[in-house]
Amino acid sequence: MPTLSHNDAPNDIDSLSQSQFIKEIAEVINNSTPPKGIGINGYWGTGKTSALLQLHRELTGILPTDNKRPKNLQVTTVWFEAWRYQNEPVPIISLLHEIRTRIRLWNRFLGKSKKLMGVVLQGVFTAFDETIKVASAGLLQNTISGLNKAGEQWERNHYETPLQGQHISDLLEEAIEKALGSNSRNNRKLVIFIDDLDRCTPEVALKLLEGIKIYLNLKNCVVVFGMDQRQIEQALVKALDLKGDNNGHQAREYLEKICQDIYHLPLPDKDAKKAYLLKLLEGLKIGNDDNEHRQHLATVLSNYDCLPANPRKIKALANRLAVMLRANILTGDLTLIESTGVRREYALLISMTIIYTFHRQLNEQLEKDSKYINTVIMFAQDPSKVDKDLFEPMGGIKPSLAADKALPTNPSDSNIFRLHQLFRDLESITESEITIFLGK
Ligand SMILES: Nc1ncnc2c1ncn2[C@@H]1O[C@H](COP(=O)(O)OP(=O)(O)OP(=O)(O)O)[C@@H](O)[C@H]1O
Ligand SMILES: [Mg+2]
């Protein structure tokens, strides 16, 4: 049933040709020997949470919110949204609590013969409680090194009484081993998904990474981070108070200690972006001629690479395109752009919708003064030729072409002007051609 507007929920079903990418990471996890840290890196809104959900399903056959027995017991998962624990003084405690809570749940899903006996389960919980106590003692010292000191103190105390003596991470590792139902024949793993680390304050992000390094660097644990690597590195520079020109490099080295493999979310190319937009339009009410509309839009997008490589932004654009199409403003003009055979009216529809969605100030200017379109055309032809005063409404917009040279731009940002070629091919644009799109 088509809707008027898509929401922005992460999507566990891939429409961006990323399934091979997800399969490869799943294979690495299945065939790696932990401890292991894996990062899925992408800019905001490029699909990190969606990728983590797809990976979760690839590994277990279920989603994190499905409270049911996973299809594959080789991998057991915990889902941890870091920013939710933003105000916790020691975020690793929240993560340990979360794992502890999940253990009770997993145990319910195991068959009768696989279920942990009450006494074993109690032992597992005790190990977690001990670790949480140690981590909380670190809290009293209120520094990150406090976490380490608390661990060392615990070990000293326990090594003085050799019968109970056991390294804290051995204790936790063994508890997890039992909880997973591992034995000498299988090699079961706990996979911890940590999303939104980059949404935490620098201090919290650092504390969580430190906590993971100290307590969860275990032979049966894989930690998968969804992150914007740039943001995390900037946060680490701040939180670790790194100085000097190569502070970014130091931050990266710090991150690499915890996260050995970092996979960059593949950037959708022109065809993948087009297919995604058209698929989104299929789910939207766009009027009676929906097939025809989609076909003409497809021709525009096959000829002009004007979308950002960012599904969130493409979604916003699809929602807006649907508003425009439902408003029934197209006149049915059959004029074509000569060089590409694209219907002019649809080229203008996409251009004006992109301006409305991504370049707000420019849109406001055009609504105020539609003649300003001539400046936009000039900018499209050669940004350096546009008078700086006239340039003001386009102040935040970065050109992606200078004369005929492609400029380096962030593919996922929406303040990049990707309409150079399209505007060049449209040549002159009359005011009446664009006023139908303005103020809608
Ligand atoms: N592979 C995909 N297939 C279809 N839609 C996707 C895909 N990846 C992302 N999306 C869509 O793009 C939008 C952003 O996705 P998501 O929330 O996963 O990104 P994110 O990188 O986690 O964002 P944030 O930086 O805000 O955490 C959502 O609307 C989602 O439905
Ligand atoms: Mg996300």
Residue share in helices? Answer: 40-55%
Terminal residue distance = 25 Å
As laid out across the biggest beta sheet, the strand order is 2-3-4-1-5
Mean pLDDT: 90
Largest sheet: 5 strands, parallel
CATH topology of the largest domain: Rossmann fold
CATH architecture of the largest domain: 3-Layer(aba) Sandwich
- Stretches with pLDDT under 50, minimum 5 residues: none
Oligomer: single chain
Proportion of strand residues: 5-15%
Summarize it:
The chain has 440 residues and is an alpha/beta fold. It has helices spanning 19-30, 48-60, 91-109, 118-141, 144-160, 168-180, 202-215, 229-239, 247-258, 270-282, 290-303, 311-326, 344-358, 360-368, 373-381, 388-391, 420-426, 431-435; strands at 36-41, 75-81, 189-195, 221-227, 261-264, 398-399, 401-402, 405-406, 416-417. The chain folds into 2 domains: 19-264, 3-Layer(aba) Sandwich (Rossmann fold); 270-435, no CATH class.
Features:
440 residues; alpha/beta; Rossmann fold; 2 domains; five-stranded parallel β-sheet; two-stranded parallel ribbon; 9 strands; binds adenosine-5'-triphosphate; binds magnesium ion
Q: What can you tell me about this protein's structure?
A:
The mean pLDDT is 90. The chain has helices at 19-30, 48-60, 91-109, 118-141, 144-160, 168-180, 202-215, 229-239, 247-258, 270-282, 290-303, 311-326, 344-358, 360-368, 373-381, 388-391, 420-426, 431-435, and strands at 36-41, 75-81, 189-195, 221-227, 261-264, 398-399, 401-402, 405-406, 416-417. The chain is built from 18 helices and 9 strands. The strands form 3 sheets. The protein has a 5-stranded parallel β-sheet with strand order 2-3-4-1-5, with helices on both faces. The radius of gyration is 27 Å and the shape is elongated. It folds into 2 domains: 19-264, Rossmann fold (3-Layer(aba) Sandwich); 270-435, no CATH class. Helix 12 crosses helix 13 (344-358). By secondary structure, the protein is of the alpha/beta class. The structure holds adenosine-5'-triphosphate and magnesium ion. Adenosine-5'-triphosphate binds at residues 8-11, 14-16, 18, 42, 44-50, 196, 311-312, 315.
